[in-house]
Amino acid sequence: MEKLKKILIYGLNALLLTLIGLALVRIGSYDGLLQSQRAAVFWAGDSGATFAQVSCFFPADRPAALDSVLSFRGRIDAKLAGAGVEPKKESEGKHWTDCYSTQDTLTVEGERNSSAVTVFGVGGNFFLFHPYALLSGSYIYEDDVMQDRVVLDYELAWKLFGGTDLAGMTVRIDGKPYYIAGVVRRETDKFSDKAYSGEAALYMPYSTLASLRADSETGISSYELAMPDPLTGFAKTFVQESFENDGGVVVENSGRYSFQSIFSIFTNFGDRAISANGVSYPYWENAARISEVYIARLYACVALLALYPLVCLGILLVRLFIRLRARAKRLKSGLWDAWDDRYARQAAWKARRAQRRAGRDVKQPAAAREKPGKERKAQKRRVRTAEARKRAEEPDTEAFDGAVAADIESIVREIMAEKESASPKEGPP
After folding, report:
1. I need a surface site. Which of 101, 178, 229, 362 has the fewest CB within 10 A?
2. How many domains are there within the chain?
3. Is 294 exposed, middle or buried (0-12, 13-18, 19+ CB in 10 A)?
């Protein structure tokens, strides 16, 4: 039963960790899904420098004037130089790029019919910040000599002409012809699909749209900037300080998917849901805000899924701590016992040494025990010298006994020889 319980716990933890991993992978895929949030990455390229993308959205009743944007552009290089960013040579371009846009509704006529469409008046490097898929032709740019070119999206191209290969053809707005530069397809991700209402769209230069609305002032509703960020928040602070009097809402796109930014959605959810400044966000910003909610929801799921594994991990760590603590106590007790044994062995060794010294002291005279070490050694040398002299003066009894034995043997041999010579020799009968 205990084994089955462990298997179930391990299996449940493995399943929860797998779900957490899948949620984190999905969060990573959402992070890079919206191309409109990656202009800083595109503009930085392989430079290795830190760039930031910052957007400013203005209230619908107080759009920014073009002069305000142009004045801000003129201060960017000086601001970067003050932050230690060396200016580029004229042939090398600029450290930064930007775009601005506004939105309106116009009636556009084509070969087949006419339609009321959403018109985006764009300026700057708009199609870097919004890299729509180009189906035919080319984009339009701020420095184009002719400002009468437009870009159609896929829906409008099919509605007006029944196809997408339209470069060089014309559409008419208020009876005036405009040349088609190209046809694009907008983003097809689920966030953009939710944020965009689906109507056909046309893109033209901002100055051209402003000339069509000469009877009313056409202001800028959105400004976007990609620039070096030598200090964290440098670019965002610069944009806020420059447009604070226009009542714009500033967003740092390059850092909006960080954990800190996503966590702030939970803490400021009420303020986020209510727009008190009258800002009407373009669809790409609404798509980004929807993606933030999705990512925040996934983080909430990760937190809930991680509760049980964290509790199990906490229990495991507590048990491990208890075991390690018990083992540490046993080790400490063993060390103290070894320490006590060491002192016991040392005390026994000292006792044996004292006994040996006491035995030697009993054999030696009291006077020798009282003498210091050097005098005791000298006394021993004198005793050994006296014993050697005594042995030299005493006769060598062993040598004497040997000489006497040799003399007696020689005398006996002489007597035996004389007896043999004195006795008569016996002859034959």
Report:
1. 362
2. 1
3. middle
Q: Is residue 341 included in any domain, yes or no?
A: no
Enclosing domain of residue 249: 2-307
| 271 vs 268: CA distance, rounded Å | 5
Give CA–CA dist 269/297, Å, rounded.
Answer: 12
Task: Write out the two tokens for 186.
Answer: 């907008």
In a domain, 242, yes or no: yes
Nearest to 82 by CA among 290, 234, 201: 234
- CA–CA separation, 238 vs 232, rounded Å? 12
Q: Which helix (H) or strand (E) holds 400?
A: helix 397-422
Closest by CA position to 16, among listed 345, 310, 280, 366: 310
Q: What pairing do the DSSP bridges indicate for beta strands 149-153 and 176-185?
A: parallel
314, part of any domain: no
CA atoms within a 13 Å half-sphere pointing along the CA-CB vector of 429: 0
- Cα 284 to Cα 35, 161, 191, distances in angstroms: 9, 27, 9
The residues, any chain, with a CB within 8 Å of residue 57's CB and separated by 6 or more, are: 221, 222, 248, 249, 251, 279, 280, 281, 282, 285
Q: What is the DSSP letter of 320?
A: H
- The answer to whether 235 and 43 have CB atoms below 8 angstroms apart is no
Whose tokens are 């999905």? That residue is 26
416 domain residue, yes or no? no
* Element at 203 (helix H, strand E): strand 201-205
Half-sphere exposure of 197 (CA within 13 A, CB side): 6
End-to-end Cα distance, the chain: 133
Instruction: Give the span between the Cα atoms of 279 and 44, in whole angstroms.
Output: 29
Residue 162 near residue 115, CB atoms below 8 Å: no
- Write phi, then psi, for 166 (nearest 5 degrees): -120, 10
Closest listed residue to residue 292, CA positions, set 316, 328, 263, 262: 262
